[in-house]
Design brief:
Layout (H helix, E strand, L loop, with lengths): L7 H7 L2 H7 L4 H9 L12 H4 L45 E3 L4 E3 L11 H5 L1 H4 L9 H9 L2 H10 L8 H16 L10 H6 L7 H11 L6 H5 L17 E2 L7 H7 L25 E2 L21 H9 L10 E2 L4 E2 L11 H4 L7 H12 L7 H5 L1
Antiparallel strand pairs: 1-2, 3-4, 5-6
Helix pairs in contact: 2-8, 3-9, 7-9, 11-16, 14-16
């Protein structure tokens, strides 16, 4: 008989302290933490969730590969995706994927195109992706779980004694556990310099303060149009994204595409790759990422095309500045390349606000660095 996955509340009510002790995991989040770091859940036993979303590096992939850090290397040692692994930090705050009637925009979800509604859905993707963790099917993943008696005990304690009789139910339980870990404070501590500034325990430098004022200003920059969720500029749980989808004119990452052997005329459709979306007007739009830890989670954009955070600020400024220098990508010394998708640009948002001089660009970068969680501040030095 097909099992129905128990709710977390029901499961916890049914679970005894002895069963938890026998399993070695005293909560669903503790089980999820073990699963998050378990390389046995990949085909060749070399890759875990933490490989591409490392807790030591802002929950992104720190590995240098043949394509730099623009995309992640798969468990097979040869495969790459064509998008950068987004940070898993603060991901729990993204609302379920939905169409917002008030804004007229798709909003929320997980992945760059929002194709999974929530954390559990996202957690279930990589193990079965042939170019990521490479497991062929759910029963193979479940067989790996059953190799570990502690897992068997934990799953039976947290969910149901006969949980392993149904691969779909067991896989759903696995993703629920990983999601529970990703919902812990480990992923969202809110303890950056910015947070300490709000709490009155850190005084910003004059440059950081200028950047903060510019960032939240509706007169001098357009940053907050997309990178502010809360109505207040001093909200203690600001995630610095409105979770909408926009085409900001990002060019192709030619080096990555060349390595992948992708046809030059192929484009990343962005939001249009989401099975819930069919309107061609959504072509080339990607989810607005959180700016939490942005200074240590480069390269930038969905395809990792820019290496430096200052380059990103200059990229935005090119839409408003007539200065010749602003039309040059400082990383290449050449004019900015054309957008990968041209017809769906968020022109109104991109062109709102005046041009920035170097002092203001540097101030914004300085402010963005204050959004780095305390545990990663040493990486700013690197």
């Amino acid at each position: 008989m097909r099992l129905t996955l128990l709710s977390l509340a029901t499961a916890l009510t049914m679970t005894s302290g002895t069963a938890f002790a026998d399993s070695g995991y005293d909560s669903l989040a503790a089980l999820g933490e073990a699963l998050y770091h378990d390389t046995n859940l990949s085909m060749n036993r070399t890759q875990s969730c933490a490989t591409c979303h490392s807790p030591d590096f802002g929950f992104v992939d720190p590995r240098e590969t043949d394509v730099g850090k623009a995309a992640s290397l798969g468990d097979d040692g040869i495969s790459f995706g064509d998008r950068q692994a987004p940070t898993a930090a603060y991901a729990k705050f993204s609302p379920p994927f939905h169409f917002n009637d008030k804004t007229g925009r798709w909003t929320g979800g997980q992945f760059w195109d929002g194709r999974e509604a929530d954390l559990a859905g996202q957690a279930g993707g990589p193990p079965l992706n042939p170019i990521e963790m490479g497991m062929p099917d759910k029963p193979t993943v479940i067989a790996r779980l059953q190799e570990d008696p502690a897992y068997v005990s934990a799953f039976q304690s947290l969910f149901a004694k006969d949980i392993f009789d149904d691969a779909d139910a067991t896989y759903a339980a696995l993703t629920q556990a990983i999601a529970a870990f990703e919902e812990t404070e480990t992923f969202a501590p809110f303890d950056s310099k910015y947070d300490r500034y709000l709490a009155g325990t850190y005084k910003m430098t004059s440059q950081e303060e200028l950047g903060r004022v510019l960032f939240f200003s509706q007169q001098f920059t357009n940053c907050a149009l997309c990178h502010q969720l809360k109505r207040s500029a001093v909200d203690p749980q600001e995630t610095f994204t409105n979770y909408e989808f926009h085409n900001i004119g990002v060019p192709k990452n030619d080096a990555l595409r060349a390595h992948l052997g992708t046809d030059p005329i192929t484009v990343d459709k962005g939001l249009l790759n989401n099975p819930q979306v069919s309107d061609p007007a959504e072509m080339g739009k990607f989810k607005v990422p959180t700016l939490r830890n942005v200074a240590i989670t480069g390269p930038y954009m969905h395809n990792g095309v820019f290496t430096d955070l200052r380059t990103v600020v200059l990229f935005y400024d090119k839409y408003n500045s007539r200065a010749e220098s602003r039309q040059i990508n400082p990383e290449t010394g050449q004019p900015w390349k054309l957008p990968e998708v041209r017809g769906t640009l968020s022109v109104a948002e991109l062109t709102e606000g005046p041009a920035l001089d170097d002092k203001r660009v540097d101030a914004i970068v300085a402010f963005l660095k204050t959004l780095t969680d305390a545990r990663y501040e040493h990486l700013l030095e690197d």
